[in-house]
Input
Amino acid sequence: MSDLRVSERVAVIGAGLVGSLWALMLARRGYIVDVYDRRPDPCLAGDVGGRSINLALSERGWKALDLAGVQNAVRTIAMPIKGRRMHAVDGSLTFQPYGREEGGRFGEGECIYSVARGSLNRLLLEAAEATGQTTVHFDHKLEDYRQDGEGVTLHFGEQGEPRCDRLFGTDGAFSAVRMRMMKADRFDVEQKYLEHGYKEIELSPDGAGDFQLPSDGLHIWPRGHFMLMALPNPDGSFTCTLFAPYEGADSFAEIANADAAQAYFEKHFPDIVPLLPNLKAQWTDHPTSSLAMVSCEPWHEGDRVALVGDSAHAIVPFYGQGMNCGFEDCTVLDGLMGDGGVKDWSTMLAKYSSLRKPSGDAILELALRNFIEMRDLTGDAQFLLQKRIERKLAQQYPDRWVPLYSQVTFTHIDYAEALRRGDVQRAIMRQVMDRPDIDEIWDNEELLNDVLQSALDLLDKK
Ligand SMILES: Cc1cc2nc3c(=O)[nH]c(=O)nc-3n(C[C@H](O)[C@H](O)[C@H](O)COP(=O)(O)OP(=O)(O)OC[C@H]3O[C@@H](n4cnc5c(N)ncnc54)[C@H](O)[C@@H]3O)c2cc1C
Output
């Protein structure tokens, strides 16, 4: 923890995952931090606002948690997920490891980690409060703010108008801070909805409290333009999420009621139906939620206001990177603040914005592409062969061929650079997969070396 003592008062709007972590990092630097959230406290502990109950935490997230001194605490509530388990309509299963079987952050191979949103949020907020530098104010909905030469006035309606020196908007995809920034000159925003929505269904533990599916995998039922996913929770349950279009074939619009939902599951995901005896009740009780994408620029307003997390870059969840990207924003901001404190906030925040905006755009593009891969390709024999070839390359030449998924999930390579490298690798793999004899020769050393050489040539040509 920094021994620097700073008299500045910083407001963090939004006590979600990113706001809590950023508050903790600021507090450790000695700032006096006020975190405001529109939700009441018990709500934050239980209800998670209709959004995913669990999340996949990966390397970028861990690095930020490490920096904030809470990695070991989070480790106790995180469970390793080693790969994808694909379920075909006929019930057959395929396993695809995410990364290398050795190494990895905790020496258990390269894996992602499932964490409960509520537990992680609570842990981060409590750690921020434990610094003695942070106060959390629930039931405070930011309506507006005004900057003047001396600081920022926050408007919370009946809750008052406190002042602060700096303001960070970590208030999510529909950020009030961003809405206010839209009034500033030359601030660009784009918001779009995915044509798909999602609904979560819980798969309970069996009578003995055990998992009803193998717990080391993210289960996927890829069905072309829609899919079901299941991510395990430490309590023995799984959170299943159906991603389907709102309209058209196989859409939510076609599932008029709980009986139709039962029939839909029996047709498309028959192997999970016996494990979901209360599917109909859950279908009726749980909302269908939309997925918004937001891109904006710049991520700051002058030297006093900045956006961090979903408020700056709401993305679709198909790479499991939204929170990880927000945590990486915190790592980058913390790095830019340097050891001796910030001397020029305007320059520092402008640098943060110009560094992170391309990364935010890149991870949105990667996540959209991964949706197609997950729902459409993970059940495809040629795609699985391509993955096998890439795995072999990665095993033999770990420093020279890092698969795109690994770059995004297990490294700190900038998302924009990962996207660029991934495009080069994709072009190369397309050539390889187009060979008519690929099924017979795929584990041929000579072919592999050709592939690697052309990859290196292209990758070096920046
Ligand atoms: C289905 C789904 C699955 C996902 N899975 C993953 C995953 O596996 N891995 C991953 O990394 N990411 C995942 N994500 C993305 C992840 O949920 C988000 O990126 C993350 O929650 C962003 O955190 P945040 O703190 O920026 O915003 P949020 O979590 O949205 O928090 C914003 C906070 O601001 C508060 N707030 C909003 N407006 C105001 C206001 N006016 N005044 C005061 N407070 C306000 C809200 O109450 C909330 O507490 C998933 C998202 C979805 C939808």
User: Anything to note?
Assistant: The radius of gyration is 23 Å. The chain has three domains: 9-79+109-190+292-370, 192-290, 380-460.
